[in-house]
Design brief:
Blueprint (H helix, E strand, L loop, with lengths): L1 H5 L2 H25 L4 H23 L8 H24 L2 H8 L2 H13 L5 H18 L13 H24 L5 H20 L8 H27 L2 H6 L3 H14 L5 H19 L3
């Protein structure tokens, strides 16, 4: 416990975030396997997040709508589109492949933060990003790179990469908004946009879930909130490029959940890639020392 508390706060928040999002991904995949449409999963997640975010804002007794409303709406809209893409890839690819492809976003985030926020990419962060990205390439090699991506459905691949880029853009907006807005307000705008948008697009394809499906949808929302809170707090206490470098740890969590829940046994390439990712995270954390 003392060792965990000695880790910088931004890293602790990001680790909490990655665990939450990994658990969310597992629940999304399980719900998709039960025949629940992607847009319905998005709507369920947004409904839970909207309620929890609103209650959190009321608890803090702060203004609901924030100051920079246009940026808040933009963050919500970009995040909603990225979410649909990510969920589609999770339900149509293996959990490991979907997570690996989606977690190319720290590279996009570092570039966007440099262009729009003027954040320098420090040496430690650059080394971490390079090692982590190399680890991602090694891990995806068995199912994609070694076969020229022909083994992956084109639409699923495009959705995963689009989700990664959209996530990066949303994270940069979070970093910008964190200078003036409370984290709960930033989180609130995401389901505020995603819920009505997903319901409109869902139309008459709604599926009434059984009790287990309903529980999975509820857990998607709860684990999402856990991930969002950790992410927003991490971005508020650290630069966008450096904070999101630790998000690669979600690949490790996803691989473990894949083994446990979906019998997805990792290959040697997965283990090698995971080693690179962990090495990059340690370098980023311990460089100054």
């Amino acid at each position: 416990m003392n060792l965990f508390l000695s880790i910088p706060a931004a890293i602790r928040y990001m680790l909490l975030s990655t665990l939450g999002f990994a658990l969310m991904g597992a629940c999304v995949k399980a719900a998709g396997m039960r025949g629940i449409p992607v847009l319905e999963i998005v709507a369920a997640r947004a409904a839970v997040s909207l309620l929890l975010s609103y209650l959190d804002i009321k608890r803090k007794r702060i203004q609901v709508w924030g100051e920079q409303k246009m940026l808040l709406v933009a963050r919500g809209a970009i995040g909603a589109v990225a979410l649909v893409c990510v969920y589609y890839s999770v339900t149509t690819l293996t959990l490991a492949d979907a997570t690996v492809l989606q977690y190319t976003h720290p590279a996009f985030t570092a570039l966007l933060a440099l262009l729009f926020l003027g954040e320098r990419i420090r040496a430690a962060t650059l080394v971490c990003l390079l090692l982590s990205f190399a680890g991602v390439l090694v891990m995806v090699r068995p199912g994609a790179v070694a076969e020229g991506f022909s083994a992956l459905p084109a639409l699923s691949l495009a959705a995963a990469l689009a989700g990664a880029f959209g996530s990066a853009a949303a994270y940069v907006l979070v970093r910008k908004l964190s200078q003036t807005e409370d984290s709960s307000v930033i989180i609130f705008y995401f389901p505020l946009i995603a819920l009505p948008a997903s319901l409109v697009m869902l139309g008459d394809t709604l599926v009434i879930p059984d009790m287990e499906g309903l529980m999975l949808l509820l857990l998607v929302g709860i684990f999402t909130q856990m991930g969002q809170i950790g992410l927003t707090k991490a971005m508020a206490t650290e630069s966008a490029a450096k904070a999101t470098a630790y998000s690669y740890v979600q690949v490790i969590f996803a691989a473990l959940l894949g083994i446990w829940l979906f019998a997805e046994i990792p290959t040697l390439w997965t283990l090698l890639g995971g080693g690179l990712i962990i090495a990059g995270a340690l370098i980023n954390a311990l460089w100054k020392r």
